[in-house]
Amino acid sequence: MAASPLAGFPFLKMNGLGNEILVMDLRGRDHIITPAEARAIAADPRSRFDQLMALHDSPSAAAFMRIYNNDGSASAACGNGTRCVAWAIGRDGGPDRVRLETSAGALEAQRVGEARYTVDMGPPRFDWRDIPLAHAVADPDAIAVDLPGWTAPGPASALGMGNPHLVCFVPDQQSYDLASQGPALERHPLFPQRTNVSFAQVLDRDHILLRVWERGAGPTLACGTAACATAVAAMRRGLADREAAIDLPGGQLTIAWRETDGHVLMTGPTELEWEGRLPDDFAAEPAPGVA
Ligand SMILES: N[C@H](CCC[C@H](N)C(=O)O)C(=O)O
User: Fold this and answer.
1) Where, by residue number, is the active site (predicted)?
2) Which amino acids bring their CB within 6 angstroms of ligand 1?
């Protein structure tokens, strides 16, 4: 098997509140990581990730980001990963403010501490075609998500942050096991591209407990776009003010839904764990019939 153009390629192993992020800078290269390569990289404990952030050349930003889940699927948004990319571009005297392009639009990240960033994640998407949903719904905040043998705690919210989100509000996290319902809800027929699944417990108008089953990655310690989606859904329901602290298993994000332009601002930390290289004999055999 021919050596992959990724053989020996460097990476940064980072995390955003424990959400495991790999950053690979492919700017100046013309290789686009395939789903099979992403899965092979994730399968190696030395380069494991929840999401892989691949940086490519952009005419209008520091980089265009291709985002991969560890199942090889693509996403147009990753909040924790975006903070990590901003740190990587800004390290060693780089810029404190970084513009990044994605297939869902441009993002601006601003350093607000040594390894802490505020990212303008853009506006939430409520139109069914932008989330996306399989069809129009009467009320995106009244989605019935009962499953065989499981009664949802109430009507859920469907919205997008460049990626799809289903937010279920629960009276207490202890009595709802996300791991048992996550896989089915991720594949809820209303979501043609699957969805990220959030169980949110509103503690106060500025404080929400959140657990997330991520599309293409399963349970993670934190999910930035889910924190954005959950905060917006709570605000739309009148359960939270325009800024809230979101407590995830990995730590806390602050989310603000700005009145002036409707953009969602996410603030949180980044962490560099190690710098590594893919094996010199790295190769990924695509699954038969799959790219
Ligand atoms: N699993 C998500 C992408 C990563 C989102 C999450 N890690 C974040 O920090 O926003 C999706 O397929 O839409």
Assistant:
1) 78, 223
2) 19, 50-51, 69, 75, 78-81, 163, 196, 214-217, 220, 223-225
